[in-house]
Amino acid sequence: MQYEVKVLRGNEGITSLLLEAGDPREAEAQAKSQGYSVIATRAMQHWSLLSLSRKVKFPVVMFSQELVALLQAGMPLIEVLETLEEKEAQPSVKKSLRKIISYLYEGHNLSYALEQLPDCFPSLFVATVRSSEKTSSLPEVLARYIVYQSQLEEIKKKVITSSIYPVILAVVGSLVVLFLMVFVVPSFSHIFEEMGGNIPLMSKLLMGFGNFLNDHLKVFLAVFLSILGGVAFIAIQPASKVWAMQKMWELPVIGQRLHLYQLARFYRSLGMLLQSGMPILVALKLVSGLLQESLHDQLKQASLTIQEGGSISQAMEKYGLVTPLAMRLLRVGERTGQMGEMMERIAAFYEEETVRWIERFVKLFEPLLMVFVGLLVGVIVVLMYFPIFELAGSIK
Q: How confident is the model over 194-206, as a mean pLDDT?
């Protein structure tokens, strides 16, 4: 990223430098190395499709996999990071690795270095690494995080795969209807006008609408694309996402499924942290952001109950953060001392149930969507042929 740095040196007066750097501190360091005194630093924003396409997200999972492989091969941590930095081709990722290495050479631990790069590493990953530093088991903990992310990605892939066919069907059906209304219906309308005769009211309205679309096709497309762009822009706003999520939570069936899916993520993350050696209260505080805002107070009360000496199962049951099956598994975990493993089993059960529900919903929704599109196309075709039937009747 480019930074505009206002600087001062000797009698030269205040000037501006345009520097390429990873963050403001690096830009200021470059200016100071040239003998300037820094006055202010400002990021230069380039809002273009090209600049957006160049933004590379830090590959946390791949980084973890490479880190585990090299650490298990017996290489020291700093040497591993330097190796990854040398072979990295993406400039932004390379800069991030260089910053981590510099923090380590300053004497900081790995979790502190990762915490200084919040745009690259999620707080859950940082907490996972921090928990491993107490037990010197970084490869094992990172391997567990890789499994965690792989399971989440598998759930997302199943949801996306199940949604592809209905989306394609809806798009194709809409294009077919648009083709009929813009090209076919106006052609029939001209034929009927030349033939004369009475046209049924519904057919007349359909043909009038088709002619209107055909005559104002460019305006219609411009308005449609503008509305589509406006809806897309509003949809990506954080406030819109929060509002949409709140409305979905209010729906009877969908809200219940969202609740189960959030509990699955909650217990998956909590189980991973507990197995990494993190205390339960610290882990609960860390994963609270995975729950809907309306559940934060319940989790806070459950944490207070645990802090006062109550059991995890009782606290979760009291504040509605478990199902009957999850309650039984938590009690088993308390008896056997394998709470982290039991929580991961709870998450696996919730995730499988969520995937099954989505598959059942899609299997039901697909034929309903096909019937709707078929009826819509059929109504248009029938209304176009009604005048032909009327003309044929009059001829007889």
A: 70
